[in-house]
Design goal:
alpha+beta, 268 residues, 7 helices
Length: 268
């Protein structure tokens, strides 16, 4: 019969590429462990305390089940799609991990989780060395396979919310400018507290309109990146580059519009 034990010092650091690292969790520490043997494999359950994921503000607890493989090997492999929002299964050079992020399964269901981990371990052992026979294209496809994690979703949310808000303001400004141009033949920018405003015509009106439109293609490209590349290799770098380009375009176009406003002053 298995009992809860105090986790030994340095337990989490002893694993080479564990599940919590794959998911991008900020781990506070293990609360307890339980050890045992199931279907010929040594297993361990770790009650893991970690920082919140997404925009949650409370500390989360996840029970991670791991099964030790018969030996260390760089050839152990499981497809990246085994890590999903509902259930996460992966392998490193010594263990198979299984968990459901934020969940603490009841003890009576542990056998199901251990079966899941052992099934994955048996698959890993059965397919050992299969990757050596892959051609370069197959290796590239495997390396680029999507693998769900917390960080990508958070990063996408931050960038897309900011882009959506400021893009809405740009579109509203463009709509107002178009209305002014249709009615007055110019773009009018008047301030209620000041007797003077801006009256843009010709090429200056065109540049003003273009400055509002210019960042929008970058937003479209970032949205395409999120829908097609999220959870894939180099997604974070690509999205951050596009986000910084968008932010730079927004700031640059703001200064362009400000220069245009300052160049034409007349009574409103």
């Amino acid at each position: 019969m298995a009992f809860k034990e105090k986790p030994p010092r340095g337990l989490l650091e002893s694993f080479s590429d564990p599940l919590w690292q794959r998911l991008g969790l900020v781990v506070v520490g293990p609360q307890w462990i339980v050890k045992g043997r199931h279907r010929g494999f040594d297993w361990m359950a770790i009650e893991l305390l970690h920082r919140p994921t997404g925009f949650r503000q409370t500390i989360m607890t996840t029970t991670v089940f791991l099964v030790r493989l018969p030996r260390k090997s760089k050839d152990w492999y499981l497809p990246a799609d085994r890590i999903t929002p509902d259930k996460q299964v992966c392998v490193d050079d010594a263990c198979v991990y299984a968990a459901a992020l934020g969940e603490q399964p009841r003890v009576r269901t542990w056998r199901q989780w251990l079966d899941l981990a052992v099934d994955a371990a048996e698959e890993v052992i059965r397919t050992e060395g299969a990757r050596r026979k892959e051609n370069p294209q197959q290796k590239a496809e495997r390396a680029d396979a999507p693998s769900w994690n917390v960080v990508d979703g958070n990063l996408a949310s931050i960038w897309l919310v900011a882009m959506a808000f400021f893009s809405f303001l740009n579109v509203m400004g463009l709509w107002q400018a178009y209305g002014d141009w249709q009615g007055q033949g110019a773009i009018l920018l008047c301030h209620g507290s000041k007797p003077f405003g801006t009256y843009l015509q010709g090429w200056k009106a065109a540049v003003y309109a273009v400055s509002l439109v210019a960042p929008l293609p970058i937003v479209a490209k970032a949205l395409h990146t999120v829908t097609t590349r999220m959870y894939r290799q180099a997604f974070r770098l690509q999205l951050c580059v596009e986000g910084l380009l968008w932010a730079g375009a927004m700031v640059g176009m703001h200064y362009v519009r400000d220069a245009l406003v300052q160049s034409v002053r007349q009574a409103c």
